[in-house]
Please model this.
Amino acid sequence: MKRIVHIGIWWDKRRSPEELTKDKARVQQILSRIGMGSLFHPEQHYYDFHLEIGAKALKVLIDELQITPHLASSHIRIEHRYTQQELESAELLLWHPSNQAIEDDYYDFYAEGELHRDLYQRCLTCGARTKQIRDLIVNKALMRGKDVSWTYAFEVILSERVGQLFQEHGLAGFELRSVHHYRKPYKGEPTLYQLVVTNVLPPMASPPTEFEEKWPHRNQCEVCGRRSYFLKHTHYWGKIMYYEDTDVYYPHNVLERVEDFNRSAEYFGELRVSHPYIIITQRVYRLLREHKVKNWVAKPIYLVDWHER
Ligand SMILES: [Zn+2]
Model:
């Protein structure tokens, strides 16, 4: 895995003329210390870099920014790039659509008054979904040529081809639910399916899986008991904050419980839209690639020897 840091340095044009002069000089100095002095232009107030963890220039840049942290861009993030070999040797992978082309259910989200029809039973206090009570009704035209999509509320929609692929190969751990068009049928209306993952895994191994600690009081509902997590993604180099999604770990013996499709016991995101993560096996990963299914991403999950403390 390569860890690529997306980082920028800049000066804030709204600062006083004296501060601005100092900041510009300092940015010029930092650029030259990381061997990028030729990039400097007095009218260009933002410089952005993609540097791999371990690169000398990155270390120098971060050390320099400890002295003047206000010159660091506000959104520094680390992207993980996996090799094909890493992806193909992972027994389990975290999987999700790479787009949210489909909007929410029309009669739940948009229709008001008499037309409104709930899609879910929800907790009246926090709004968390406790049960889906009917099929999804969406604007199917938005799926346009996609193989897989999320709805805004993180329901997974499959094209007919992908749904059939899963069924033909006898994959387990999920159900396909019908998806309907919100208006009259139209010419060429596609068949779509909702992927409902049914096999629930035991809890992740934590640690080493780390969760964000912020706002624990907002992430648990006292009425329905739903608790929702965020994978830890805020970290610091001294005074500089950056974002990096931490990896997911399961105990080795989870393999005795996996099916082709699985969902995490944990829910993630804001309570109202909190949803489990989807975990697939290597078999599903290969099937998706072999059949050139588009519009999804996967990353390896790590298995560890782990006993609950
Ligand atoms: Zn609740």
